[in-house]
Structures are given as structure tokens and as C-alpha cells.
Write a structure and sequence with these properties.
- With 220 residues, this protein is mostly helical.
- Helix content is 71%, strand content 0%.
- It contains eleven helices and no strands.
């Protein structure tokens, strides 16, 4: 988390530093990303940077967390077309609006791509934040689905949350492998990959299994 001195900056100066940092980490891996380039571009002294952030790691983790915050704001500003839509219709809509967010925030999305598929420094710390957020979202979604009658009332919620998180957190990596895409190509293709018909078909296949299960059921 940045120091309070960073948040005390005028909003335009604070945003300029964030934008420059996003650009730097989006276009370079963690080891190659340069604080010197960031401060030069921002027109601040290097000593000032350390009044705002403890080190490069703190800035990096802040940007990853910022991606999650901005996505949450985007979802809040773009509510689903039907508040009463079922759980699985909602998940299909969520996948679509998530792609729209990444298309409109491509550089910030690249920072997250690099963190997950490329660099992986401080991976456990970054993933711990993501898993906590994903678990909270999944639990709320599943409980709401149970209350609405979309999901089985006798379902073990915590087991379902665990399974749901495995799919959501690993889905992007699986889609890349399934489509034989090198993660480094995300710099060029970005979220456009996840908007493709192939990616949507794979996502739908996961939802179909979640919704309908793998068992054949009782034969009459």
C-alpha cells in the first residue's frame, strides 16, 4: 500500500505517476521495469518516489490491486441487463463484461497478465489477494443462487467455492494452453484473445459442466 504522502498529492499528479507506472510494468517484466524511467517520465526526483512507495515491489503489488479495484468499479457502473437473471446467465454476462473492461483498460490488464503468466515474482502475495476477493464473490454468488432456487439447496457451499475458484483463477491459463498461445503474445493480443469465439466456447463448456454436471443421472 502506498504511503499517505502519495495520497496527499494533487489528484492529477498522482494519476500521472500511476499511468506512467502502469505503462512501465505493462511493457516490461518486473526485473526490467525501471523506477528511474518512471520518475524521469513523471518529472519527479527519485527520492520523492521513496516518499510515496517503500520500493518497486510495493508499487507493483499496488498496481495489481488497482486492477481489481478498477474492475469492481467497472462492474458497478455496468450492471447486468436483468437483475433477476439466473446464476449461469449472470456468469456468461460477467465473462463478457470482464472482457469489455480489459479492452478499455488494456495497459492495466497487461500488468495483471504479466503478474500471472509471465513474471510471477511475489506470486503468492498477489494470488492471496486475488483468492480472497474471488472467494468472497463466489460465496455471495452461490448463496444467492441457492436462495433463488437456481442451485441445489443442499450444496456444500465451501466445497463449491473451492471448485469455483479453481476454475475462475485457472481459466485464463487453461484457455491459453488449449489455444496453444504463448503467454508472451498477450502483449500484442491482450484481451482480444478472450473475446474470440474459441475462448467463449471453452468458457461455455465449463459453465455447461457446472450447470448440468458430469453424471448421466437416473435412467428411467
Amino acid at each position: 500500500m502506498p504511503k499517505q504522502t502519495f495520497f496527499n498529492l494533487p489528484e492529477d499528479k498522482r494519476q500521472a505517476i500511476i499511468d506512467i507506472a502502469i505503462e512501465e510494468f505493462a511493457n516490461n517484466d518486473y526485473k526490467s521495469a525501471s523506477i528511474s524511467r518512471i520518475v524521469t517520465e513523471a518529472g519527479i526526483a527519485k527520492g520523492s518516489f521513496y516518499q510515496y512507495f517503500e520500493d518497486k515491489k510495493e508499487l507493483y503489488l499496488y498496481l495489481i490491486d488497482l486492477g481489481s479495484q478498477e474492475k469492481a468499479k467497472f462492474l458497478e457502473a455496468h450492471p447486468p441487463p436483468d437483475p433477476k437473471m439466473g446464476t449461469f446467465a449472470y456468469l456468461r454476462w460477467l465473462f463478457s463484461v470482464g472482457v469489455r473492461f480489459e479492452l478499455s483498460n488494456s495497459q492495466l490488464a497487461k500488468v495483471s497478465y504479466r503478474a500471472y503468466y509471465d513474471d510471477r515474482p511475489f506470486f503468492d502475495e498477489a494470488m492471496h489477494q486475488a483468492e480472497e476477493q474471488a472467494s468472497t464473490f463466489a460465496r455471495q454468488l452461490l448463496l444467492q443462487g441457492m436462495a433463488n432456487g437456481d442451485l441445489r439447496a443442499d450444496m456444500d457451499v465451501e466445497s463449491a467455492v473451492f471448485l469455483f475458484n479453481l476454475i475462475i483463477l485457472e481459466l485464463g491459463k487453461y484457455i491459453l494452453a488449449r489455444l496453444d498461445i504463448d503467454p508472451n503474445e498477450l502483449d500484442e493480443k491482450g484481451a482480444m484473445l478472450f473475446e474470440s469465439d474459441e475462448a467463449k466456447t471453452i468458457f461455455d463448456s465449463f459453465l455447461d459442466i457446472l450447470e448440468n454436471g458430469m453424471g448421466r443421472g437416473i435412467m428411467n
